[in-house]
UniProtKB/TrEMBL annotation:
Protein name in the entry: Putative K(+)-stimulated pyrophosphate-energized sodium pump
Transmembrane parts of this sequence: 6-27, 58-77, 83-103, 124-157, 276-297, 309-329, 349-372, 488-510, 522-546, 587-606, 612-635
Summary of subunit composition and partner proteins: Homodimer.
Membrane topology per record: Multi-pass membrane protein
Source species taxonomy: Bacteria, Pseudomonadati, Bacteroidota, Cytophagia, Cytophagales
EC number: 7.2.3.1
Amino acid sequence: MELALIYMVPALGLVGLLAMAVKSAWVTKQATGDKNMVELSGYIADGAMAFLKAEWKVLGYFAVIAGIVLAWSGTLVETSSPVIAISFLIGAFFSALAGYIGMKIATKANVRTTQAARTSLKHALKVSFTGGSVMGLGVAGLAVLGLGALFIVFYQLYVVSAGAGVNGLEMEKALEVLAGFSLGAESIALFARVGGGIYTKAADVGADLVGKVEAGIPEDDVRNPATIADNVGDNVGDVAGMGADLFGSYVATILATMVLGREIVSVDNFGGIAPILLPMVLAGLGIIFSIMGMAFVTIKDDKGDVQKALNMGNWSSIVFTGIASFFIVKHMLPETLSIRGYEFTNMDVFYAIILGLVVGTLMSIITEYYTAMGKRPVLSIIKQSATGHATNIIGGLSVGMESTVLPILVLAGGIYGAYEFAGLYGVAIAAAGMMATTAMQLAIDAFGPIADNAGGIAEMSQLPEEVRGRTDILDAVGNTTAATGKGFAIASAALTSLALFAAFVGIAGIDAIDIYKADVLAGLFVGGMIPFIFSSLAIAAVGRAAMDMVNEVRRQFREIPGIMEYKAKPEYEKCVEISTKASIREMIAPGAIALISPLIVGFAFGPEVLGGMLAGVTVSGVLMGMFQSNAGGAWDNAKKSFEKGVMINGEMFYKKSEPHKASVTGDTVGDPFKDTSGPSMNILIKLMSIVALVIAPHISEKDHSAIADAEMIKKEVKKEIQIIDGKKVETETITITK
């Protein structure tokens, strides 16, 4: 039974990859349109691959150096091994591969979606969403396959071969080495997300400021030299970057739950490893339920509600997961369990999983409200656009700040409730439940940039108005789904970071984080500051690269005669080169902060101060991530609302009107918020927690061997009343077993 369940996990990952291959083949078979459309999509695909190759070259050097350092550090403590370097490199490779798979299919699906939009909205939705589902299934399949297979290897290598118990040092060592896989995944994810975000927003801002505002031409006009770079950016940032991002989140969530599961003594039918296996089984079955949910994403005709169809697929996969988790938990876990003295039942674990699914759903609903067209927050920004650029900015900032209130209350309630159900394991398994349907969540998220690209190709190819109308419907929904995806990601990151934080505290041998201590309080403030300097570096990088882009676009308009009359072709490759070089150069500093700051604080000041810093960066990062992502999403949809016309104080306004120009400014400010710094916050807080977890054995304040012996000792005290010389005497018999 134990072996069957362990091997089922990577098998479910393979099922996800097989389904991905089938869907990818279907997308590839779809019609690509005329020669001009194919040529434009080729420019986009070539630009995306050029960026990835440049990025991989830099990250390759980083991975090798980090692997060497990890291999050396693995020789220094009993609970690690040089094998952690191999685990790290596999995680880094899988993370990069997940992003590549998504980007490759997105650059195929975009032009096919454009062609499908020439026939119907229904077919365009099917092509774009199927392209997104390839991304989702690829990420989830690789994560489950990688984690499941490596756990089998390390479990056999360090635990079974030594004849050791599940709760001892040997399992701690196996999971510490497995943490290298998560560290590799999150490291690549951070650089991919930041680099891709800088790329896409530098191109987008440059294209908007010169093309739309100065030259007065449409957003994706073929005459705009930056338009190809802008569409490339959608793929390298919102597809490849997001794929690596959620791959890292997925892996970190499962790993954190496994590390806490090791502390639970479980009398089960799986050799005592049921609490460790449970999050992996949930993730594997979540792939199956996501595939089932994908079948519900369809509309009847051009009047169908695309958002409703996507919600139906999402909610159905969540419901399937919730129902199945009852039977999984009842089958795998014993009636009663405990972690760090906290007693709970297997049904409490089930309730925590359901709570995680509810929190994820509520986060998506709340984010949709604050970023969707036609809702009060976006309408308030539209109204304030009537009085100029400044009031539009004020309105967007206000909406972003307000949008943190309800999600934080939901998140706080979820953390408190999950802990009440099953202690720290409850918080971790709630995050695992939330992330179980990652394949579906990412399919919905990746659908957006594919639709955005499809609209760009339609505009550049000068296709009939109804084609762009259909792609605009998909694109507008895609803006909302992108925002809800980021809300979902930051919520899962908060729960995951708390679970990783708890695991770090256990391995580091500290009982509490005492903020009355001056050094711990200082660490708390430093941690709270890090998301601000990280965001500053990312946004400033976008600003510098955008200035270069603006100057290049202006130069081409000025020096190449005939561009505006369609008589000369712009030098698209110059703009692609600017974004590529800028993003690779500028991604280093933010990434270094996330990796190096935990090392400096941990080794210089100890685990308790590092714990204070992690608490600060988690709280500050979650708030910054929500604020920036939601403000940017609301600004974007406020701008898009003008394309169909909006009524302000009884008067209709359309594109090129003064309120529309104000909304373009707001969208330009919001671009790096929602696509560069905002979504990077969830990777930042998880990566810092994972770095802390990996170095925990090196800075631990406990004697591992003594603790391990104590964990394996069982003391039984039996009291009896005996009659001796006519008197009642109480005696004790103490039995100690190891």
